[in-house]
Amino acid sequence: MSARDLAAGQPLARWLVALAATLAATLAATFALTGPAPAQNPAERKAVDSCPTEGGCLVDAGSYRIILPQVPAGRRSGAILYFHGYQGSADETIADQGLVGVAQRLGVALIAADGMGAEGLGRTWSYPGSPGRNRDEFAYVGHVLDDVARRFPVDPGRIMASGFSQGGSMVWYLACRMPARFAGFAPIAGAFWEPLPSGCAGPRPNLIHVHGVSDTTVPLAGRSLRSGYKQGDVFKSLAILAPGGCTASWAADNWAADARAADREAPADPPELTCRLASNCDGPARLELCLHSGGHIASAAWVERAWKLIMPQEAPPARTGASLTFP
User: Fold this and answer.
1) What is the mean pLDDT of residues 279-297?
2) pLDDT tier at 303 (50, 70, 90 boundaries)?
3) pLDDT of residue 325
4) pLDDT score, position 192
5) What 3 state SS string does the chain have?
6) What integer best gives the mean pLDDT of the chain?
């Protein structure tokens, strides 16, 4: 290039340098006024229904629904696997704005298991002792967990099972038969059914149970149904899950009175919980029973409380190379 060419290009070069400086100054001023974009809080992330509207996500012997939080690329969220009550459905679970709101606040997925019913009967769960005899529920749950891990950004090590009524009983049986597949359990108003299990698989899991002392549908002591089936006693169920007598004192009558008194002193909706944490049980897992003055009711707030107590604050690194098999 000649000296003349270089001289001719100088005005253009000076103009380009000036333009770049102006743009840099404008961007700096804008950034100073607005600051960096704030990190999005989990409660503000839009939930995404990730299964087909018709039929849900299909697995062997059934289906499920899942609502995912928005998470950064490469990250996996925890999840709440929820079991509906008698005659409920997975569609009803994901339509529950209380549960969806809890999942969003926690930044976790909400997985809705779907029960199965015989012709003319409502959906239910076929755990041991249940009137339902529709499928192998433990295999079904294993298929759901495996399918979720394959298809969605969910950490299989951070899943908590929760459920209400017969769904709560289903959670008890998962805690007994499949404790290693979940990080914790939060059943509400449901326990083992008769005949009670002779024992449970180890290790003893994290479990927080909530029950109403005025519940007549599933009383604390259980009840016999006209069909000949019998709901189990909550305190006896606890003794099976944690043998050795560490929960033996929880059957005292005055505890129910304490729960009623707490609600009279400060009535709330949902009712206040009166909780006892087990000590001197084998192993470090959390075992807690919470009573309230109400009847056969559930609250999403109790599920949220259980998650915060059971799960560590920071997610551990997602496990790689894990072998996922059912159940």
Assistant:
1) 94
2) very high
3) 38
4) 98
5) CCHHHHHHHHHHHHHHHHHHHHHHHHHHHHHHHHCCCCCCCHHHCCCEECCCCCCCEEECCEEEEEEECCCCCCCCEEEEEEECCCCCCHHHHHHCHHHHHHHHHHCCEEEEECCECCCCCCCECCCCCCCCCCCCHHHHHHHHHHHHHHHCCEEEEEEEEEEECHHHHHHHHHHHHCHHHCCEEEEECCCCECCCCCCCCCCCCCEEEEEECCCCCCCCCCCECCCCCEECCHHHHHHHHCCCCCCHHHHCCHHHHHHHHHHHHCCCCCCCCEEEECCCCCCCCCEEEEEECCCCCCCHHHHHHHHHHHCCCCCCCCCCCCCCCCC
6) 84
